Amino acid sequence: MDINDFIHKIFEIKSVEEFNSLALQAFEYQRENCAIYKEYLELTGRLNLTPKSPFEIPFLPIRLFKTRDVVTTLPATSAQSAKGVPVSGTPQAPSTSSSVPGVPVFGTPGTKKAQNVPGVPVLRTPGTPVTFTSSATTGMVPSHHIVQDISIYEQSFRNAFHHFYGENFNLLALLPSYLEREGSSLVFMADALIKEAQQKGNTGGFFLYNHQELLSTLQTLSEKNSSTLTKNLNKFSLSKRPNNQKTILLGVSFALLDFAAFIKQQIPEKKEREQLFRNVIIMETGGMKGRGKELSRSELHSILSDAFSTAIHSEYGMCELLSQAYSFPLNNSNTIFAATDNKARIQQNDISETGIFSTPPWMQVVIRDLQDPFKILSLDQSQATEQQPISETINTTEGGVSKEVLVGGINVIDLANIGSCCFIETEDRGTFYFSATTTPHTIHPKFTVDGRIKNSELRGCNMLIE
């Protein structure tokens, strides 16, 4: 298999058939070139398996990233790191942005090193692989993900972010615990996207616990948007007014909760908070890290939504994956999942309440049976196989709206993981929602993350337990 061609094709996927074909190619390649995956297949009696669809492929338990180096051998010519070619957007020593005083930013040329961002590492030396690590809670063994070609990760998170949020945004990152340790893939991603925003003349930066500076920055951006809109009122009709530029506040859960409490104290009037955050997207990434009461995602979103007077977005990612899924609230006035062939439907306001995630085209989520890790659940009878029989689905009715869902463990196919393993059995449990345009085996699945599977170790970056 030509790895360069494979990498190019995964970011050009436009159909289920293209995804399925590339997934099967990845399996064949990793079965022969990933020692840990090959050993796992051999021990489970599946080394000689000939899958007819990606959903018959065995998934590697994610806990193996804690104790083993999960690496697929790539041709030296495919990886920039193997050739010693520097990668753009790489974090260097932290510094302070001149455009946003007091906001620490990585790698801004010609600026002074920030003293309030201790311990932030240089994540990459040109010519060497990157090792990302998980944010394990005290006493837990962290996972580690060796990334041979960091440019694949950059392509993946940039393309996914642009896919869902466009290319014109301000980005503020409230990631204190991640900035204070080494090897965070989330910090690497945020740093690259912040630099991208700055290069386009927009605002971007990291914050630790400096809530007043973050509030001041948000107020400045709010005033700027108001001024811009006022100037353009006479140039555009009501139907053609330009959209105000969005500001994305990306934050770890406990830090957003702290900032939410600060905001409610500083701005007690709800209408004033609505005005301030009318063009702000609050995006939580999980990560309570044992700080305070553990909250379900719905409880977390309820608290944050009340404080910021806006609906809450989410990012679902982990150090073992090079791709991310996103959930974002939708307009409650319409039904986007239409009932067809007696299939169930779910309304948009249900999505806003539950936080349903979508994946980029090269990333796929499937649901497995919690009693049999090799059994993939399906709503589509055509996906039934002798290896993975169909399981019963759950049908519920809430508020007069019928839902047909799958409930079980979350498995992820991430084709960007060609340098490690593309087929990961996570320790998260989730719910898969059927729609007329999205079946469990299309390239745009819809799912919720419902917490950790019982008896599995809590992940530092995702401790939202129901």
Tally of helical runs: 13
Number of domains: 2
Q: Tell me about the biggest sheet?
A: 13 strands, mixed
Overall number of strands: 17
Which structural class do you get from the secondary structure elements?
Answer: alpha/beta
Helicity, in percent?
25-40%
List the helices and strands and how they pair.
Layout: H1 3-10, H2 16-33, H3 35-43, E1 60-61, H4 64-67, H5 80-83, E2 94-96, E3 104-106, E4 130-133, E5 144-147, H6 150-165, E6 169-174, H7 176-179, H8 185-199, E7 204-207, H9 211-232, E8 246-251, H10 253-266, H11 270-276, E9 280-284, H12 297-308, E10 312-316, E11 325-327, H13 348-354, E12 357-358, E13 363-368, E14 394-398, E15 401-414, E16 423-433, E17 446-452
Parallel strand pairs: 1-16, 6-7, 6-8, 8-9, 9-10
Antiparallel strand pairs: 2-3, 4-5, 10-11, 11-12, 12-17, 13-15, 14-15, 15-16, 16-17
Helix pairs in contact: 2-3, 10-12
Task: Describe the model.
By secondary structure, the chain is an alpha/beta fold. The chain folds into two domains: 1-82 and 327-466, no CATH class; 91-125 and 149-232 and 242-316, no CATH class. Helices cover 30% and strands 19% of the residues. The chain contains 13 helices and 17 strands. It has helices at residues 3-10, 16-33, 35-43, 64-67, 80-83, 150-165, 176-179, 185-199, 211-232, 253-266, 270-276, 297-308, 348-354; strands spanning 60-61, 94-96, 104-106, 130-133, 144-147, 169-174, 204-207, 246-251, 280-284, 312-316, 325-327, 357-358, 363-368, 394-398, 401-414, 423-433, 446-452. The strands form three sheets. Strands 1, 6, 7, 8, 9, 10, 11, 12, 13, 14, 15, 16 and 17 form a 13-stranded mixed β-sheet that branches. A two-stranded antiparallel sheet has the order 2-3. Helix 2 packs across helix 3 (35-43) and helix 10 (253-266) runs parallel beside helix 12. The radius of gyration is 22 Å and the shape is globular. Residues 79-126, 229-234, 236-242, 331-353, 381-403, 436-442 and 460-466 have low confidence and may be disordered.
